[in-house]
Queue: 3 jobs
Job 1
Amino acid sequence: MRFINKLGPLKVLNNHLSVYPTPINLSYAYNFGSLAGVVLASQIVTGILLAMHYVGHVDLAFNSVVHLMNDVPSGMILRYAHANGASLFFIVVYIHILRGIYYSSGNQPREAVWITGVVILLVMVLTAFIGYVLPWGQMSFWGATVITSLATVIPVVGKTILSFLWGGFSVDNPTLNRFYSLHYTLPFVLAGLSIFHIAALHQYGSTNPLGVNTSTSTIPFGSYFASKDLLGLLIMLFVFACLVFFYPEALGHPDNLIPANPYSTPQHIVPEWYFLWFYAILRSIPNKAMGVICILLAFVALIAMPFISTMHIGSPKFRVLSERLFFFFVADIALLTYIGQTEIADTTIFVGQVCTVFLFLYLVVVYPFLSTFESYLYLNAVNLAGHPTGARSQVS
């Protein structure tokens, strides 16, 4: 141990991986942060290898992907590992964020952890979108056309921004080159943000699932929780292997196996599944500008969560109404994801509008104020029972 402490890099690893103090009762729900780091590393490695064979030109991009899959040894595995790795990355990060909301992990004094997490999600969304364009299939081309055109809702400079994104008057070769350059760069930005996210987390430590201050009830991470993270990693790798080797196109769209054709519009343009809940919100609002504003407001509400929360009791196990509404919120996002892939009809638009209203009600009204209401009910119940009301659970 003295030898390790004398060496700077080893000392940092020892402090943040081995002897890092961890609440004694962390559940498997806390595994997903480390799993996200593993998937990000996998995406960077497979992305670099794919870039060795990809050609960023509209006449050659689709054929370069076909060549990679058919002629390069293990190229098909490499391509499917990267494509399904993006889906796995979003699955892990979405669960990680939902766990943070469930346990109020971003509340004071961990605001920096939460804000950097939301920024990471935003960069992930941008990186995944421009990566989806690179294979230059039908859905890639038309998805890029539809999504980039949303920039026109920005007053005054909207059309200028759109022209810069396109590099001309339509989605074409300059657009592909811009997206290729950004998609190669942004994962390294994600890696830097992740390091900052971990540093902010380790400044104050992980929250306790019970929602109480247990700074004296901690154990070293490496000795007790590394095996739990390893088990989670093995399960994730098994799911990943099943996707890559048995169901490689299960999460993709068949139209993207057709070369991009600017003269043939697909019957139903949809983004990747992890963007469908965004897409459902856009479709449910008739005005395009208001749809974009609502998407931005959803991220603003996520960033503001630590500052608008009035939570006094950290664990949802002691806030039964909050726990039930949280699961309604999760079901609402799942329903928006389903609605986003269905054809446009009066029924789907109405359901999408109802789900959108509930989403914002939860983020802006329920989450900030429900805990105050629950505390009021608790104090009244204690008063009726004739017990002292001064004691409160400590803030997590």
Job 2
Amino acid sequence: MHLSEELKKRYTKDKHSVREAQRIAEFIAFGPVVFQVSRLMLKWGILEMLRDEELTSDEVAERAGITKYAAKCVMEASLTIGTVLVDSNSGKFTISKIGWFLVNDPATIVNIDFNHDVNYLGMFDLETALKEGRPAGLKQLGNWSTIYEGLSTLPEKAKSSWFAFDHFYSDSSFEEALKIVFASSPKTLMDVGGNTGRWAMQCVSYDENVDVTIVDLPQQLDMMRENVSGKNGADRIHVYPTNLLDENNGLPDSSHWDVIWMSQFLDCFSEKEILSILKRAVKVMDADSTMYIMETLWNRQKYEPAAFCLTQISLYFTAMANGNSKMYGSDELTELVDKAGLKIEAIHDNLGQGHSILCCRKK
């Protein structure tokens, strides 16, 4: 298994003392409580208050507009969670380093909202999802076979948190990705799984000579049209509605595609489905076409917290999204790329929030 140097340090040896291990085990046992208490400390603005000044629990109750009982419960729990510290003499609380990250780290804030609004209730059915290979928890949000069919009609908070999560992780890498993709000045670009059109708009804004064709589900393309309507360069964005889960549906066949782009797309499919999609892509490529696959590969992360987040996000795909995909490691994807008839010419790591780009050509 390939592991980045940082991950080798963390995942190949047990460095916890017995007491540390015991505490982490209890932390896991009370994980749902830890999550909800910490979420409320954010929602009620308590951590933000404690970032700026020291306060007693009674003062917190008054400022947050909650009862003294509620304040004591969440403050004492947060103390043992580690998000706040207390002065044993004055009884005043202040924020800890962990609490500071909860308040100030954009990734953490996005992840909390995503887990509460999209995943929390559905994770109760994770066991069923893993055993049956279907998103058993999705029923908490709506009656679809996959979450992608229902993105446009998700409950409002779930929709807002889903797209904030998706855009946060993809948008951070766009600037670096554009330099890589447009180094060869492509004129035709197929964006497979173009979602709301954010990448396509980046492309037509970056180079006025490129035409982009977005391949996605019809309902996704409806949202995309709405998002790009009237914007400069939108006339160079074209659509190809299809459901790639159906192996009979091919990709648009042009006289030549300079670039085929797949960003945060293949993680939405099982390995069998990925292989089928890649083979269909190879059919419309020629010797001068380049396929760029951008994914957050968990085993190539520079920092360990990113690998932790990505492997947990895999279970969102299991319980909520489709029941059979995950955040893949590079070992899995490179094997599938090879089987599909592609060769990897280069890998660019550590783009944005931990993305990698596989640059592939037809064998």
Job 3
Amino acid sequence: MRSAPSLALALVLASCGASSAAPTAPTPTEAAGPPRPWAELSRDERAAHMAREVLPRMTDLFVAYDPSRYDAFTCATCHGEGAREREYAMPNPALLPLWPTGTEGQHQTVRDHPEGVRFMYSRVMPAMQALLGAPEFDASTGEGFSCFACHPHAQ
């Protein structure tokens, strides 16, 4: 099982855009979104979709990115050790808190972890948007799927 710091470091880093030579995310045609909007799915339907679609694709992405680090990718990799007790609620409080785009904290995260940021932003984010059938984040409205769907806000 991964330690919280290594898990947090691995899953951080998505609030800055860049391209990467990292493994590719499934394209929207490869990533099957849910049959209905996520909010309309029952708990059982969400769990089935996560097991059937999300977990295998995220496992492939993370293992391709770092096979030794993610050799045991599970639901807890993203949802945390207490996932069942928290009913798999996200954001996961154990993940590294992220700073809003454009802040010094966000810039420091990018400087500290450029490859991880590129991987999360260019691979994980679009894959999760497609897999959850979620709209892209719209900065003008503050609506849509963003890094903060999984990561808590830094204080």
